[in-house]
Amino acid sequence: MGFSGLPLASGLALIFDLDGVLVDSMPVHTLAWQRYLEQLGVSKNDVARRMHGRRNDEIVREFLGPHVPLEAAFEHGAAKERLFRMMMLGGRLSESLVPGVAGFLSRAQGVPVALATNAEPANVVFVLDGTGLRRWFHEVVDGSQVKRAKPEPDVYLTAAERLKIAPRNCIVFEDSPVGVAAARAAGMRVAGVLTHPEPLSNIDFAVPDFLHPELESWLATQRPI
Prior knowledge:
Elements: E1 13-16, H1 26-39, H2 47-51, H3 56-64, H4 70-87, H5 92-95, H6 101-106, E2 113-116, H7 121-131, E3 139-141, H8 154-163, E4 170-174, H9 177-185, E5 189-193, E6 205-207, H10 214-220
Parallel strand pairs: 1-2, 1-4, 2-3, 4-5, 5-6
């Protein structure tokens, strides 16, 4: 076993998504999109399903049309994220931490740990610094650092490369079908975090949060290849 407080073999790495894995922020993201779209005169009743796990420029074109210029799509996305961060102030961010994740990360000392997310860079800074979780991550990869967002594997492959761990020896924590597809395309193992009702398939294991007693038992069975 490794030198961490987790029952994890040496030679393995842990990679985390952000929204829905570190923070259960998707309800606020959904509400922020609804409010932002209403300001533009666009009414959508299926925002949660159509945004889950996707990058903002893709979401904007989903709602406003495929011909929105890329620069305008990024501007819309940035405006929505400013609204999201404003809505998460006043203690709501810390209250949104997925149960047990802070303690789990603190016990992973000695394990290569990365964040790999489609989230906007400003949101990554907001969450990691606002919750105090940044210190546990050796590498942080966001959607702006790669050419292709999830469900393509780029963010996960980049994280593995920076950690110097083979993709097959990386365990990914994901909450969305888009993210699971990205991790699988990267050739990684996947633990689903069931923070949302949308079902997850093609995963190796699933837990509701990081307090679930069977999580560490499952981790103890994993071996580097």
